[in-house]
Amino acid sequence: LKELKDHVWAWQLNFLTPAELIHWSLREGVQINLQSLVCIGSAVAESREDAGAASYCASKHALKGLIYSIRKENPVVD
Predict the structure, then answer these.
(1) Global pTM value
(2) Do the Cβ atoms of 57 and 42 come closer than 8 Å?
């Protein structure tokens, strides 16, 4: 059983940091292409189960959802 701090670390690393960078770039008018945005962290993927990596996979799903939603809301971003 992981400690809460381990789940928080995964959330901060895999969701909050990229989300802050995306938010900053959109706010500052920096051109980014969310079609080709890649955030690499490890071999763990959000698309398959991985024992011991539930919080990591969940944070990857959150980031994927954020990017897809921003693309839908702002088609000019792509």
Answers:
(1) 0.74
(2) no
